[in-house]
Amino acid sequence: MITTPIQPIYLDPALDAWIVTRYNDVRSILEDHRFIPTLIGSSHPVPETRDEVRDRHARMKEGVTAIPAPDGAPAIPKGQCDLIQDILKPWCLQFAASAMGTPLDTRLGTMADEIFAASAFPYDVELRSRGSSAASALSRCVNTKNPVALQAFIALATSLPYFAGNAWALLVSHPDQCARLRKQPELVASAIEECLRVAGPSRIQFRKASCSVGQVNQNSTVLLMLEAANRDPAVFTDPDTFDIQRNDNPHLAFGRGGHSCVGAPLIRSMSRRLTLALLDQSESVTLKEPPLWNGFAMRFLNHLLVVIE
């Protein structure tokens, strides 16, 4: 399971925690049903069998499949704008509300942002409390007939625009790669995969061992460093190079196994659509100021100021 001993760290005297950085180790733990997704400060996990994990994952996939695709794409204005706040966030919130059959209300976006912030900064007790309250309030507003309604709304209203913003920031920061994609839009699929590898929204995933596994004790917390795994030189050639034509790209941005992100196909397809819309409706996009990256467990930009021509 774990190929060689991993290095333990202790985040506080009461928390037995392990950090895992190598690609093969991270992937093995992601695919092992004995390591259960957890939140900081949560109680001991309830063990599940492989069949239980597989069946629940299949039901969640069905819920995602039922989400209708949106009509069209956002309009891209000329001049100076904030790609995150002016374009991505409002358009994706509208899409999320429509997909979940919920009236459009900016307060729903605020709730989703608070839940996302709690995931991005899991050690912030105040943010965790606000995120929990927001999740309870938001769950009463979305389509409860869909088993993944709450998760889907958060993903569409926050994860999608933040990842698309990450992708756009990478492309605009690498003019040669952006120019290549303009000339060869058929590369958009591999471009999005490379953006996921280099700047996928999830930097760290947390697991708790439901039983003792190797040198990891039962109820120990494991921090899976996706960002490090996705730059492991044993797996990725020139891992620090951003290359939209990278062929072999088995990144772990969406996890693996029974706890992988069921919304991955939707995030992928929508990110491609949004990126092509940006390129189709502009001749050039220039950074107004360097991107200011944010987040601990999740990576995102609050703003992406550019000039569009």
What does it look like?
The model is unreliable at 1-13 (pLDDT under 50). The protein is built from ten helices and ten strands. The chain is globular, with a radius of gyration of 19 Å. 45% of the residues lie in helices and 13% in strands. The longest helix has 25 residues, at 149-173. It is of the alpha+beta class and 309 residues long. It has a five-stranded mixed β-sheet. It has a three-stranded antiparallel β-sheet with strand order 4-10-7. It has a two-stranded antiparallel ribbon with strand order 8-9. The chain has helices spanning 23-30, 50-65, 83-99, 106-120, 125-139, 149-173, 175-183, 188-199, 226-229, 264-280; strands at residues 8-12, 15-20, 35-37, 79-82, 204-209, 221-225, 285-287, 293-294, 300-301, 305-308.
In short:
This protein is an alpha+beta fold and 309 residues long. It is built from ten helices and ten strands. The chain has helices spanning 23-30, 50-65, 83-99, 106-120, 125-139, 149-173, 175-183, 188-199, 226-229, 264-280, and strands at 8-12, 15-20, 35-37, 79-82, 204-209, 221-225, 285-287, 293-294, 300-301, 305-308.
Strand order in space, largest sheet = 1-2-6-5-3
Cα-based radius of gyration, to the nearest Å: 19 Å
Order of helices and strands: EEHEHEHHHHHHEEHHEEEE
Given the helix and strand composition, which structural class is it?
Answer: alpha+beta
Q: Span between N and C termini?
A: 52 Å
User: What's the average pLDDT?
Assistant: 87
Per the principal axes of the C-alpha atoms, what is the gross shape? globular
Q: What helical percentage do the residues reach?
A: 40-55%
User: Which band does the percent of strand residues land in?
Assistant: 5-15%
- Count of helical regions: 10
- Number of β-strand runs: 10
In the predicted model, the low-confidence regions spanning at least 5 consecutive residues are 1-13
- Tell me the major beta sheet: 5 strands, mixed
